[in-house]
Amino acid sequence: MLTKPSFRVGGVPVYGDLILSPMAGFSDLPYRSICRSLGSAMSYTEFVNVDELNKGRNGSPRARQKLCYISNERPVVFQIYGHDVERIVSVAQWLQDLGPDIIDINMGCYVKKIAERGAGAGMLRNPDMIARLMDKLTNVLDIPVSAKIRLGWDDDNRNYMDVARALHDHGASLVAVHGRTKSQAYSGRADWDAIAEIKQALSVPVVGNGDVRTVADIESIKTHTGCDAVMIGRAVIGNPWILQRRDRQEVTLSDRLDLIRKHLALNIDFYGVEKGLILFRKHVARYIEDTPAGVRKIRVPLLTCDRVSDFEDLLCSLVSETNETVGLAM
Ligand SMILES: Cc1cc2nc3c(=O)[nH]c(=O)nc-3n(C[C@H](O)[C@H](O)[C@H](O)COP(=O)(O)O)c2cc1C
Predict the structure, then answer these.
(1) Is 7-245's fold the same as 251-321's?
(2) pLDDT tens, position by position, 243-259
């Protein structure tokens, strides 16, 4: 347990330097709380559309569910996206009453129907609008505001320094950077030099993100960029232990089964049996990915079973078939 904060977001202390990336369809309350208990230093919700939050009196139930959290997750960051400054500001104002520690604006989503409307990575095309948005948000909110950005729209428009300065000069308390442009989506390599450049220029914490797959990569991106923390996305799926600085091959079958059971139980608590089990399938597929033949044999039954007791029986059969004392060779 760290006694001294690794960094602060405005007045919010953060203990630790690894953070689960916000990921739509993955960063829900059950998975975030698991990741937080394994070592994620703060909890970002997946991005939530401000238009969904504008529906009815308190937002659509689906949008509101994405913002549920438990106190053990703190610091909790609500990540929202939209293209209209006034609407983002008015939603952020009432969201503050739900008790998040920080509100984050997504400026990195590359999905066409979002980015081309000027939300997500579409915001990067307009640093003046970003400045206006930050001015207004910091004016009306009592909690810190942050942003998660990409490097620009495309190779010809890598305006990340303008964006980073607009954020910094207009009150953002933290900037997380995925080192790719919008048009790259996930192609090529994340540009850690650009993250280093942003880190050098800003006095607020900078979080580096992109292509961290192993524990060695964590140390590399920190050394390369000087970033205050590292955000990890895809490599956490199926291996949340990376947040404890453990690579896949270091995780034993026993650890894996314990976590599968715990995660499934949390999913069922949060979503109910039917939905909880269905939403767990994508996780279990990744937890047992690349495992020995004895484990892979039950992959299809695990992914298709629709009763918790059947699921449990399958897990038990796994224990008897596989030598528990040996870590899974992956
Ligand atoms: C399935 C999935 C969903 C994502 N959803 C979000 C999101 O809601 N908000 C966000 O800022 N980034 C989102 N991202 C981007 C990640 O947070 C991260 O920036 C990106 O995956 C690069 O990091 P990585 O190389 O560690 O995966 C998503 C990525 C994936 C794979």
Answers:
(1) no
(2) 999 999 999 988 999 99
